[in-house]
From TrEMBL, chain A:
Protein task: Part of the high-affinity ATP-driven potassium transport (or Kdp) system, which catalyzes the hydrolysis of ATP coupled with the electrogenic transport of potassium into the cytoplasm. This subunit binds the extracellular potassium ions and delivers the ions to the membrane domain of KdpB through an intramembrane tunnel.
HAMAP family to which the protein is assigned, alphabetical: KdpA
NCBIfam families assigned: kdpA
Entry keyword Oxidoreductase: no
Keywords: Cell membrane, Ion transport, Membrane, Potassium, Potassium transport, Transmembrane, Transmembrane helix, Transport
Pfam families hit by this protein: KdpA
Subcellular location: Cell membrane
Keyword Lipid biosynthesis: no
Protein source organism: Bradyrhizobium campsiandrae
Protein name: Potassium-transporting ATPase potassium-binding subunit
Similarity comment text for this entry: Belongs to the KdpA family.
PANTHER family, per the entry: POTASSIUM-TRANSPORTING ATPASE A CHAIN, POTASSIUM-TRANSPORTING ATPASE POTASSIUM-BINDING SUBUNIT
Bilayer topology term: Multi-pass membrane protein
Automatic annotation (TrEMBL), chain B:
Family in the record: Belongs to the KdpC family.
Membrane protein topology class: Single-pass membrane protein
Disordered: region residues: 67-101
UniProt name for this protein: Potassium-transporting ATPase KdpC subunit
Keywords (A to Z) from UniProt: ATP-binding, Cell membrane, Ion transport, Membrane, Nucleotide-binding, Potassium, Potassium transport, Transmembrane, Transmembrane helix, Transport
Protein origin, superkingdom: Bacteria
Keyword Metal-binding: no
Compartment list: Cell membrane
Subunit structure: The system is composed of three essential subunits: KdpA, KdpB and KdpC.
One Pfam family linked to the record: KdpC
Source organism of the structure: Bradyrhizobium campsiandrae
Length: 567, 201
């Protein structure tokens, strides 16, 4: 670990905190339907969209209608992706002549993109046409992000409103999020990325003759426009197989730094949106503080582990950390930081291969996802995930003093706690359940790339990533098999929707409750005690659930590594 | 609920048209106008022919060139399309080795490469990036230490003084952005092109 490494980490944290307030201010205006500086340009487009699609923007929806609208939207998105993948051979914008994608891979990828997972069983440059990348993937990157944010805002409205039946209008929230938040940032961001060197072209793959006379086919494409939304929307699905490690997806140290910022920016800003909507920004800062504590702890462990290297490297006298599967322009610190960010948020883009991380360095990304990706989290998903843990923490605090718990003026009662538990229990069910199947089913075992405990971790990571809708991978695992395409898709589906529907039920239930003013007996939720309590609940829940599985994978591998045992 | 069907279809198509068609195509047009070379992939031409991209590493095996990092990229086996074969720096199929910290295959590969490099230059410590594969398999860079490590070999093969090569390496070393972000690095293709030019003089 070096001083300059830590300075980069500190600078990252400072900029995120600095962005939180202005972005939160802007997003709050957008979701309250107020005018913004972009309204003169975008308002006519917005109004036109409502007119042709028959949306009455003044009419708000009951939580159930909101949820059904969201589900219907996903069905449509699924059909578009599946359709263009199956038909890409006969559709335009296919200069590399990619053949139709197989049924199971198309199914997996379609589920993966509508759930904001963006798991890559597909190979990007070796599998998909430009049309699929644009109409299938880029477009769904926008929508799954906009949907996530809309759902978080709906849940926040549940807290901020009192005695009403509605939580907002899904169509309006998604449209406004796309037009006013995601699209303008992406336009500027894309140009920045092209300036840094990311290609943006519809031309053919380039045939080069290297200095030594060999042939090299260089895949290009409309990359920058997709990378912008893939990062900003915490989607993470790469244009290329190697994702953000590919020099065309992440050409410079600066592009890497900005990409890391853009993964966290909207998620962090949503904590401020929450504070503003419930009428006290300190409520938002308290939640960001919970995220910050867990984040910094994760970064410290991963950075230390990667800088330390492995026993194999040390035995050969190789210093400078574990560079296997990392790029020179990022080095140890930017690779370790990126890995923690991408799994804390549900992004899943990678700028280094997590499969080649040290045992402990790779365990932190795994834990981040298993905790529910609530450390900033996916855009929207992180916020509603975190609020579920807050509900539990408040419930625990209420039990301790024997008083009905309340949070930002709302009584937390049996219904909310039950729904929160339901959502949180989905994680272990899918992650541990499918991992158990994956390590005994012969066809699944054959997909492991590494032997010993590392192979187990590959499978555990795959289902963790899928259930958490993250999309990063211990990529040695051959996931493009019938078994993994289907089981991972089921984990992604359940992990997304069995989290969303209970969260929306809580939103509806809270919106209907009266708001009660704070009294002497109200537990203050803006101070250090509250932050500590929530951190504790998150760690205890995660620890009790996943420690046994971690002990079989990364922890035993770390011990084996220290004993110089190889597999 | 039935009245949500129409927006589900029409709104989806409208937003698909905006974000999936208009946005990428408009960005392609604008980016191509403002940054034409970079939008095409930062390609380098020599004598009218494309020799590569500044951003994409390529394989160097000849002693008279500086070598990049090992690459774990694969290509379909020409004899059996269901299998893959090693194809270093395959820029149409990026990827890493994905070997873990306790992998015997990785340990064996590292040992072999370290032994080979130690024989080549016994006077310096082997830089770690010169024996580890990159995440993309297309890393265009090596560390300044890895470039300096190769100076004696290149000097011998080219019959050039080591001092002038060291100077060449130094002038092709890029520092951290603002002295803070990223790591110092040497672009191997740029260095080798500069080397060819220097040797021609």
């Amino acid at each position: 670990m070096t001083m300059i490494g830590w300075l980069q980490i500190i600078l990252f944290c400072v900029i995120i905190v600095a962005l939180t307030k202005p972005l939160g201010w802007y997003m709050t205006r957008v979701f309250n339907g107020e005018r913004t500086f972009l309204s003169p340009v975008l308002r006519p487009i917005e109004a036109g969209i409502y007119r042709i699609s028959g949306v009455d923007e003044k009419r708000e929806q009951h939580w159930l209608t909101y949820t059904v609208a969201m589900l219907l939207f996903h069905v449509g998105g699924f059909l578009i992706i599946y359709g263009v993948m199956r038909l890409q051979a006969v559709l335009p914008f296919n200069p590399a002549g990619q053949a139709a994608v197989a049924e199971d891979l198309s199914f997996n990828t379609a589920v993966s993109f509508i759930t904001n997972t963006n798991w890559q069983n597909y190979g990007g440059e070796s599998t998909l046409s430009y049309l699929v990348q644009m109409v299938g993937l880029t477009h769904q990157n926008f929508l799954s992000a906009a949907i996530g944010i809309a759902l978080a805002v709906a849940l926040i409205r549940g807290f901020s409103r009192a005695s009403v039946r509605t939580v907002g209008n899904f169509w309006v929230d998604v449209t406004r999020c796309t037009l006013y938040v995601l699209l303008p940032i992406c336009v500027v961001y894309t140009l920045f990325l092209v300036w840094q060197g990311i290609p943006q072209t519809l031309g053919d793959y380039v045939e080069a003759t290297t200095l030594e006379g060999a042939k090299q086919t260089i895949a290009v494409g409309p990359v920058a426009s997709q990378v912008a939304i893939k990062m900003l929307g915490t989607n993470g699905g790469g244009f290329f197989n190697a994702n953000a490690a590919h020099p065309f997806e992440n050409p410079t140290a600066l592009s890497n730094f900005v990409q890391m910022l853009s993964i966290f920016a909207l998620g962090a800003a949503l904590t401020n949106v929450f504070g503003r909507m419930v009428g006290n920004q300190r409520q938002g800062w308290a939640i960001l503080a919970v995220m910050g504590v867990l984040f910094v702890a994760g970064v410290a462990v991963t950075y230390w582990a990667e800088a330390n290297g492995t026993s194999t490297l040390q035995a050969l006298g190789l210093t400078g950390g574990n560079m296997e599967g990392k790029e020179v322009r990022f080095g140890i610190v930017a690779s370790a930081l990126f890995a923690v960010i991408t799994t804390a948020a549900s992004c899943g883009a990678v700028n280094a291969m997590h499969d080649s991380f040290t045992a402990l360095g790779g365990m932190i990304p795994l834990i981040n996802i298993e905790l529910g990706e609530i450390i900033v989290g996916g855009v929207g998903a992180g916020m509603y995930g975190m609020l579920l843990f807050v509900i539990l923490a408040i419930f625990v605090a209420g039990l301790m003093v024997g008083r009905t718990p309340e949070y930002v003026g709302k009584k937390i009662e049996a219904r909310e706690v039950k729904m929160a538990m339901l959502a949180i229990l989905v994680l272990p069910l899918m992650i541990l359940g499918w991992t158990a199947v994956g390590v005994v089913y012969p066809a699944a075992v054959a997909s492991m790339a590494n032997a010993g405990p590392h192979g187990f971790t590959e499978v555990l990571y795959a289902y963790t990533s899928a259930t958490g809708n993250n999309g990063s991978a211990f990529a040695g695992l051959s996931g493009n098999t019938f078994f993994y395409n289907l089981t991972l898709a089921s984990a992604m589906f359940v992990g997304r929707f069995f989290m969303i529907v209970p969260a929306m039920a809580i939103a509806g239930s809270l919106a209907g409750k009266k708001s009660i003013p704070p009294s002497m007996g109200t537990f203050p939720t803006t101070g250090g005690l509250f932050v500590g309590l929530v951190v504790g609940v998150i760690l205890i829940m995660g620890g009790l659930t996943f420690f046994p599985a971690l002990a079989l994978g990364p922890i035993v591998e770390h011990l084996a590594m220290n004993a110089s045992q190889l597999f | 609920m039935l009245r949500e069907i129409r927006p589900a279809i029409v709104l989806l198509l409208a937003l698909t048209a905006i974000t999936g068609v208009a946005y990428p195509l408009a960005m392609t047009g604008i980016a191509g106008a403002i940054f034409p070379a970079r939008a095409q992939g930062s390609l380098i031409e020599k004598d009218g022919k494309v020799v590569g991209s500044t951003l994409i590493g390529q394989e160097f095996k000849d002693d008279k060139y500086f070598h990049g990092r090992p690459s774990a990229t694969l290509a379909p086996d020409p004899n059996d399309s269901s299998k893959t074969v090693p194809a270093p720096y395959n820029a149409a199929n990026s990827g890493g080795s994905n070997l873990g910290p306790t992998s015997k295959a990785l340990a064996d590969r590292l040992k072999e490469d370290v032994d080979r490099l130690k024989a080549e230059n016994p006077n310096a410590a082997v830089p770690v990036d010169l024996v580890t594969t990159s995440a993309s398999g297309l890393d265009p860079d090596i560390s300044p230490e890895a470039a300096e490590f190769q100076v004696p070999r290149v000097a011998k093969a080219r019959n050039m003084p080591e001092a002038s090569l060291k100077q060449l390496v130094a002038s092709n070393t890029e520092g951290r952005w603002l002295g803070l972000i990223g790591e110092p690095r040497v672009n191997v293709l740029a260095l080798n092109l500069a080397l060819d030019r220097a040797a021609a003089k």
